[in-house]
UniProtKB/TrEMBL annotation:
The lineage of its organism: Bacteria, Pseudomonadati, Pseudomonadota, Gammaproteobacteria, Lysobacterales. This is Ubiquinone biosynthesis accessory factor UbiT. Required for O(2)-independent ubiquinone (coenzyme Q) biosynthesis. Likely functions as an accessory factor. GO terms for biological process: chorismate metabolic process; ubiquinone biosynthetic process. Belongs to the UbiT family.
Length: 281
């Protein structure tokens, strides 16, 4: 019985995520702000009222609905900011008492705002590609394989990526002019020989790929806005995307999660500062 209820809950959550993506696209097309704090407050209040009718503690309904709102924010690439309610970061571990909605978290623009003068001086990643090409390929491969293994070791050991075994996936960092073809073999993610052709390829800028890897933005948003492009075997590409999107973020070591998110924030802030400088010239 409990397993059946769990399955139903997960099915409903998947349906909710699809509706969130659809709502975000409609709002973007109509120029309506995606974030609606009043709506979020009402979602929590309604959950509390319904929970009270069935004897559910307010803290339990708060945790559940806050987690769903957090998930929606990730899907839409939004900072999880609110001025009235408090919620925990469910990716960080323990759940303290909840008094309401989403806690104020420092986004990339706020965290690096005091350094905007210096960030404006940083060149875009495309200017770095000539220097990266001087790094021996063997070093690039070892570094990339080590990073993939560090991030994906837990799900690989559990067999969560078995569907990708011996399938060749391409990753292209367009502004750095970097390309790899990776494959899951013998329990490790490996970079293929340069002459092997990818069955499916994901292409995007360094910053947008970092946003995806660090869960700062949802894959649906990045692909919908054409900031990431999928070519080749679409079915394989979507399978890989869905599997990676469902991986438990909390299984990545905390220090690595923090480093990924801070690095992504810096890259995003630098890109914004550079774009602002270019627009003002």
């Amino acid at each position: 019985m409990i397993d059946g209820v769990d399955d139903a809950l997960l099915t409903l959550i998947v349906a909710r995520r699809r509706l969130v993506s659809l709502a975000a696209r409609i709002k973007q097309e109509k120029g309506v702000p995606i974030r609606d704090p009043d709506r979020e407050r009402e979602v929590l209040r309604r959950a509390r009222r319904l929970g009270n009718r069935f004897g559910l503690p307010p803290a339990s309904s708060d945790r559940l609905m806050s987690a769903l709102i957090q998930d929606a924010c990730r899907q839409q690439g939004l900072s999880q900011v609110s001025d009235e309610f408090v919620v925990v970061d469910t990716d960080q571990g323990a759940l303290p008492p909840i008094t309401g909605m989403l806690a104020n978290t420092m986004n990339s623009q706020t965290r690096f705002s005091s350094y905007s003068r210096w960030l404006r001086l940083l060149p875009p990643p495309s200017r770095l590609s000539p220097f990266l090409r001087r790094i021996p390929i063997v070093w690039q491969v070892k570094l990339f394989e080590a990073a993939m293994q560090r991030v994906l070791s837990a799900p690989i050991e559990k067999g969560a990526l078995e569907m990708l075994s011996d399938r060749r996936l391409g990753i292209e960092v367009s502004d750095l002019d970097l390309r790899w073809v990776v494959v899951l073999r013998e329990g490790r993610m490996r970079v293929c020989a340069r002459d092997e052709i990818a069955e499916a390829t994901v292409r995007g800028t360094a910053t947008d790929l970092m946003l995806l890897a660090s869960r700062r933005e949802d894959a649906d948003t990045l692909f919908f806005q054409r900031r990431l492009v999928l070519t080749g075997d679409t079915e394989l590409g979507l399978t890989a995307r869905n599997l990676l999107d469902q991986l438990p973020w909390q299984e990545i070591p905390l220090g690595l999660r923090i480093a990924m998110q801070r690095g992504t924030d810096l890259a995003l802030a630098a890109r914004t500062a550079y774009q602002n400088r270019t627009a003002s010239n």
